[in-house]
Amino acid sequence: MMVAVFTAAIFMACNPDVGGNEPEIPETPETPETPSTPETPETPEAPEIIENNGVGADGKIALNSVAYACYLGNVWDNGVADYYIMLTNDTLGMGANNFEVPMHQGGWILYLDLWSTLSEKTYDAVLPEGTYTLGRGRDFGCLYQDYSLATNNLEQVLVDGQWLYRIKDIFFKEGTVTVTHTNNGYHIETVVVTTKDEELTFVYDGAIVFEDQSDDEEWLPALDMDINLEPVYGDIRFYESIPSANCDNYVISLFNVTDLTEDKVHPNKIGGIKLQLDIYPELGKGVAGTYHIGTLSDEKYLLQKEPWVYYPGCYWGSLALGTFVEFIDKDGTVLYSVVKGGTLTITENEDGTKIKSEDGGQLRPDAIFYLPEGKSLIIDSKVSLTAYTDYINASAEEQPTKLALHLRSIKSHIDELARKEYPKYVKNSADFVMMFVPNEGAYLAALNADKELWESAYNRHIVVISPTHLISVLKLMYQLWMRDKQTKNALKIADETGKLYDKFVGFVGDLEEVGKHLDKASAVYEEAHKKLSSGKGNLLSRVEGIKELGVKTAKRLKIEESED
Asked: Where does residue 89 fall: left (phi above 0), alpha (psi -120 to 50 degrees), or beta otherwise?
């Protein structure tokens, strides 16, 4: 019964037909605005695609334009001319590596470095007919392998609303180029086998206009004087280890000025001197030793590599190579002298003595870089990469074992450097040695194999560095020398300014003395002037009186009468 009453009460309260006040009807809430749908960005129009990757029905890639062609002439001074050509079937643009690339999928660039007879007119060069074979001889009929390749745009990919492309450089291991003259210019057919064993055939028909970049006349002015080099800046670069010839390759550059070109390769000041030494010490022995001139093979400019030789100086177009001296003459002319004979001796340190340990053993740091205020930094670069080379060439099953051997080799060298204690015997050196690993991959492989390798070496005063780190270190040392020079210049300016101030004070005092003497001289002058012409009874009035006595004159004196 209570439930029924309760239900009825609720019904009465909710039903307007039953007695009681009619309840207010709440306002209908406003319907919220439907948010607008964001605009879908427009997909950029897909670029054109060159069908079938540019390969025609005949299986050949037709190239229809010349991107670039130049005639370099007798650039190697061997009586053979160099013709360089870029052929394409596409529009070219600049890629991420600052090299030209085809802009559409299926686009190609073919680079041909061809060597043949000299053209009669350098400004209107003609590529000789014939067959050119891939090689490295830089001789008649050579398609030079190092500079001949193809670039292909493999595909277009849409990324974040932007069409990007994937570029591949393709290198050749075999190939020929057949050149035929036609009424339209040339027919050039290139047949190659790539390093991936793919066969490619390129065909070009049309004209080629070669840009004249030759300088076939001997133009490099030669030095005809003795050079006394007092180096203030030096650079040593490790290029490669050559286990097959039991030698390493270093290039040492010494300068008598710190004002260098932006690339740090040439002096940039009148009177600037550069001495370049291209040397081949015995494998792992550092640079100290005595070198004799190396022998060039029948293929010009190719050195017969062996321990303790230096690369003889020679000319390549407008540049000097190997071992040579460069001098900036007073009129800005660059003079060269290439080294063709004699011996070269490099000692370990600045005073010409060997560095020895306490037990009398000879120490051979590869490089000692001298810093401002007499400080020095030792760099060792005798790290062996034999184990790393084996690791790279090993099969997948063998790689873990080969990597362990590479890591062991690196650790062994760290142990050896720690035992030698170079900083203890090199004057004013930093308390650590920089151990240079001359290959970025070898450096990273060792650190990835042992995450604690770098810190462990550092705790033993060995800093393991890669080529990237070495470049940063060399730039830092250069900046330190420049800052030291600026500091010394600032001190000199301050000293000269002080002396100038003292001189100025003395000059002001001298001027004051001159003023005093001028005042005295002026007073004496006024007194004399009065006696002569302006004072009462002056000499001029008396002379004028004589004239009045009848003396004939042509001129008349101006006499100022005074009350004095």
From this structure: alpha
